[in-house]
Amino acid sequence: MNAVDAKPVKLAVRSATKVYRTASGDLLALDRCNLEIGRNEIVSVVGPSGCGKTTLLWSMSGLHSLTQGEILLDGQALTGPHPDIGLVFQEANLLPWRDLDANIRFPFEIKGQTPDNEWIDHLLHRVGLGGFGGKYPRELSGGMQQRASIVRALSLKPSVLLMDEPFGALDSFTREEMNRLVEEIWLDTPTTIVFITHSIEEAIFLSDRVVVLSPRPGRVQAEYEVPFPRPRSLEIMATKEVFDLTNAIKREIVGSRKRAGETVREVQHAS
Ligand SMILES: Nc1ncnc2c1ncn2[C@@H]1O[C@H](COP(=O)(O)OP(=O)(O)OP(=O)(O)O)[C@@H](O)[C@H]1O
Predict the structure, then answer these.
(1) Cβ distance 156 to 86 under 8 Å?
(2) ipTM over cut 0.90
(3) Which part of the chain is the ABC transporter domain (predicted)?
(4) How many helices, marked H, and strands, marked E, lie in the chain?
(5) Backbone angles phi, psi at 12, to 5 degrees
(6) SS3 call for 13
(7) CA angle 246, 221, 214 (to 5 degrees)
(8) Cβ atoms of 192 and 11 closer than 8 Å
(9) Can you tell me the distance from the alpha carbon of 268 to that of 134, in angstroms, rounded to the nearest whole number?
(10) 121-162: per-residue pLDDT in tens?
(11) Apex 61 CA angle, 60 and 67, nearest 5
């Protein structure tokens, strides 16, 4: 059974079309793209470079307006940034002149809200940053900075977390650690997560479903259920089933790029 069939729809992308007006003409990034994400589902979006993954994610955040179509959050049209939606980017984007505590509390200052200190402390400990609140970003590794940015996003208690290649800049070991951390946090506090990645392995480890976008203009080309139980151990990730799924998704992406006559760029970790 499709995971979406079993869960109420949290986020719906309805015929999303995005045209960028550029100096050299109009660029169609998304073309009538449709997608539904169930409540507390983790969905990864993969696809060839430039196919519109970030455009789709930013549209889902309400930060980008669509040229046509709509995004529905709990059935309501999204018209701009929404407090229920948190974002994590590839760069941690911490303010270098503020320590970790002050960085995490920054969104609350902007919104004029009182932070839930207990919740923030819990999150900091959860990601292994307990006791690091007084450190400045330059004193933290890339992985620690990215953990801090996850805490910053979760501190606002969003019901949807949108993650745009959050671990793309990290070494593979730290990346695996971060994947496990996201899974642990999700098992603790289920949240709807949409995750963009170039790594099929990462997508399979994290997701209930992997969505493959077509070459630009982006549309959903294929969807794969990921049926493996959580937590997903290294043993599970080493099974033939995972290997076969990885290859099926890789073939889908490479095949679509060939059909589109595009240059094939390496798809990470798709062995
Ligand atoms: N602000 C913008 N103005 C004009 N064109 C843009 C803009 N943002 C993205 N594009 C173009 O839209 C297309 C889709 O870009 P997008 O970043 O959404 O793709 P992507 O799949 O996330 O790419 P990648 O895998 O390389 O990160 C690309 O051709 C990109 O150059």
Answers:
(1) yes
(2) yes
(3) 11-240
(4) 9, 10
(5) -130, 135
(6) strand
(7) 90
(8) yes
(9) 36
(10) 998 998 889 999 999 999 999 999 999 999 999 999 999 999
(11) 55
Q: Which residue's CA is minimally distant from atom 9 of ligand 1?
A: 55
Give the strands of the sheet with 9-22, arranged side by side. 25-38, 9-22, 68-73, 76-77
Distance 253 CA to ligand 1 centre (A): 17
Q: 50 in ligand 1 pocket by Cβ < 6 Å? A: yes
Q: Hey, CA dihedral for 78, 82, 85, 89, is it positive or negative?
A: positive
| Residue whose CA is at the smallest distance from ligand 1 atom 3 | 20
Ligand 1 lined by 22 (C-beta under 6 Å): yes
Residue 52 Cα to ligand 1 midpoint, Å, equals 6
Beta strand 85-88 with 76-77 is unpaired
pLDDT tens-digit series, residues 163-196: 999 998 888 888 898 899 999 999 999 999 999 9
Radius of gyration over alpha carbons of the chain, in Å? 18
Q: Can you list the domains of the chain with their CATH numbers?
A: 3-84+159-259 (3.40.50.300), 93-157 (no CATH)
**Cis peptide preceding 166, ω within 30 of 0:** no
Beta strands in 107-237 (DSSP E): 160-164, 192-196, 209-213, 220-225
In the numeric block, which tokens belong to residue 157? 């208690």
Q: Rounded distance, CA 191 to CA 133, Å?
A: 25
Helix axes 172-188, 142-155, angle to 10 degrees: 20
For residue 40 the two structure tokens come to 């507390």
